[in-house]
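Sequence, structure tokens passed on for absentees:
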Amino acid sequence: MDQAHALTLADPRTGTPMTRPEAYESLIARHLARRAAMVAPFIVIVVGLVRGLDGALSAAIGLLIVAANFLVAAKILSWAVTKSVGAIYGAIFGGFFVRLAVLLGIVLALEPVSFIDVPVLVLTVAVAHLALLMWETRSVSLTLAAPGLKPGIGEPSKDKE
């Protein structure tokens, strides 16, 4: 590709040229994981009061699984972005089904463990995924001028890889 047809990317915040686009998916995933950590004590305590110690432990494990799932999804997409458009589509589609299978495998592996409350674990994973995604929609910038999180949300100094 000649220089005239090369894509020049600029940092939307500073306007300086970038060699590689910022991994916005990782930024958003870390923000989601931080939010999961913020609500974890409340959820664990409430579930513990309702379902006992086993329920509290299962809720904590479920929240860890959810945070890890978001972070793994971001890593897969960050890798795919460096390859090709086809790799991005494959990572999105294939990654979803592989991660779903891994979640199922984790639940099935934890089912025989005596202190795991499986209904609480499954409900926590399902509800936490949806609730965190809905909560995050308020923080995501839906414009190409400033992709990723809305300006001023999150701490960029801590979000750099």
